[in-house]
Write a structure and sequence with these properties.
The structure is a single chain. 76% of the residues lie in helices and 0% in strands. It is elongated, with a radius of gyration of 15 Å. By secondary structure, the protein is an all-alpha fold. The chain is built from 5 helices and no strands. The chain has a single domain, classed as 23S rRNA-intervening sequence (de novo design (two linked rop proteins), Up-down Bundle), CATH 1.20.1440.60.
């Protein structure tokens, strides 16, 4: 039984991705502190935050909306991974990209969005 958003595997993976983004961006050039670093961290944090908020929503439509917002933030973050790779900053592009893919698949097929219909 799911008692908290922290019981969701998709939330656990998304939270771990946030931690990876924070570690990754701490090594970016100082000039990116208020630009790319801030944007990447904001997008990353938005994913598990919206999963958490959606978990407590009562209506199916509301739940789904928050999970779709999480997906949108995840796509934004994927673009940032491509950008930093192309800027040749040192990141494990394949690792974080695979993690983002897994979270997306979980939200769509294995987890949150289909389950939102059952949680209502």
């Amino acid at each position: 039984m799911l008692n908290s958003f922290m019981d969701l595997d998709v939330w656990k993976y998304a939270h771990n991705l946030v931690l990876q983004v924070y570690k990754m961006t701490s090594g970016f050039p100082e000039g990116e502190k208020y630009g790319l670093v801030s944007q990447m961290r904001r997008a990353a944090v938005s994913v598990p935050a919206n999963i958490a908020e959606g978990f407590k929503r009562r209506g199916k439509k509301e739940k789904r909306q928050f999970y779709y917002i999480a997906l949108g933030s995840l796509e934004e973050l994927r673009y940032f991974f491509i950008l930093v790779r192309d800027l040749e900053y040192r990141i494990d592009y394949h690792g974080v990209s695979e993690d983002a893919d897994k979270i997306s698949r979980m939200l769509y097929s294995e987890g949150a969005i289909p389950q939102a219909l059952a949680w209502g």
